[in-house]
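Table 4 source record.
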Amino acid sequence: MSLIAPLNLLFLSLIGAIVMLYILRLRRKERVISSNLLWESALRDLQANAPWQKLRSSLLMWLQIAFLVLAAFALARPAIKVLATNGQTVAIVLDASGSMAATDVSPSRFGDATKKAEKLVMDLSPGDRATIIQSGAQTRVLAPLTSDKGALKRALLHAQTQDTACDLREAIVLAASLLKNQKTSGKNPGQIYVFSDGAVPALADLNTGDVGVQFVKIGKGSDNVAITALDVRRDYSEQADNQIFVNVRNFSNRARKINLELSRNGSLVAVEPMDLPPYDRKNAASGQVSHIFNKLRFQDGIFTARFDEKDDLAGDNVAFAVLAPPHELKVLLLSDNLFLEKALNNDPFVKLFRADKSQALEGQYDIVVIDGAAPPKLPLGNQLVFNTTTDLTPVTVVGEAKTPGVADWDRKHPVTRFAPWSDVLFARSKAVTLKPWGQSVVEAERTPLVVAGEKQTANGTRRVIWCGFDLSESNLPLRVAFPIFITSAVRWLGAAPGSTGENTPRRPGEIVPLTPPQGVTQISIAAPDKSARTLQVEDGRALYDGAEHSGIYTASAKGSPWTEKFAVSMLSKSESDIQPGDALKMQEGKALQGETNARANRELWALVIFGALALLTVEWWVYHRGV
């Protein structure tokens, strides 16, 4: 039992007033009589009403004190937690993230959540209303506010998990806004029930007002092994020694042994035994083992990494990668820098053209490399720019920075993630500010050094990498970062607009840009579950936001031989770590403790008031009977 308004118990201080009334009685006038033999009963009454005398027990006093105790207790609004009923207006938020597919409870965490949500729906009183919201890659309202229990149950039947993360904060804010809009004067403001395993980041800046929030904890285990990273690295040398990097992590508290299998187009290529140490939550790097499958002579194919170890979450036991066939890139070099020319020629899939800046430049190229002053008219193509600006560069020059040192670089961007920049020195660089569509990938203390950007132009989407320094005034050409940077830059500039690079792994919930051939106005995407979706092509590309499950997706166009396959894999440490959270972390260090069932406060003040009135009736009867 709990008290909703415990401060009202301060009214119990009135007990002292009742006791004082029985101690302080009215003082009588004294009369002299000849004998008190006939007045003994009157003397006893006189003594009982004398002030500041010893307190004598009185049934009336105890009845009055009991009435005051019950009245104060009722004002404190006592309540007990019961299975939720009479919620008036209820919002049910279902966590549909990848970890909710774990089978540590039957039939799964999500199945258990939907059963408990259905129990909550069936316990609603006639006239009560509820809404159902699913939180996955996107927040979706499965059922609007309704009192139709059949519609609510059908919505629960259509709910399903995704291999994505979820944004519980967004779902709770949406639920709170729906309930606030339905609140009427004098009625319950509503209650939000969040069915989740609690394996989510802290819900920062969450304010639901007077709408209640309850966390219903789902799940109990943490026995899981997962593939948390998969990357395909194409070797652009003539040896074509392509590599596939795989990281496997054990999230359970016991050591595991697995056989990691690599397949290409359904045929087994290699098997790697792995001994995985147990996971130590005090050591974030524990429990993981990495392996590189190298000397893969395949130029393309669909690769699958998997293991057959039984654990609580099967969705992260497999990961996919697509190695697209290499394609030749036409690169125009406007420079006489031999280091730059050699770095570009290292790529066997680059067809290099050289031209003088004074020549009339014609034709169309995939990439134009400009070193120093740019000619007045450049051919169409994406750009790699050194020590100058063009109409495509995503920066505005504001001055010059002398001897800038590398402060940091983006280790996730495909242009810079493989190149070490810590030992690179520059004599000077242009000091710039970023335009809205520019992203700094290498930074000095006061200015960006390398900026990547993607801009929509009249000729379609164009990409550019801008470098604010002169290569001849830097030691970058003598560092190992240089050929890696140039190769990564060429591959990013030559990739489809909107993509993060060639053969880049994709995760569920990401928006996938697709660039079909010119003239195609509509494409179809086939998902791993054999479902299909049609998209319209606008400005030469289509954006697909339906990649919510792991597997191989195929895009095609009717009447065109064009097809494009892309892989989606879970690859999420946060979703694979299925240890349930005991509470939802809120802002300012607060936490919402989890319940095993959806429960609500049932207030008992009405019953207490009824008991107090009954005591008051007894007190009246005692007083008038003179007991």
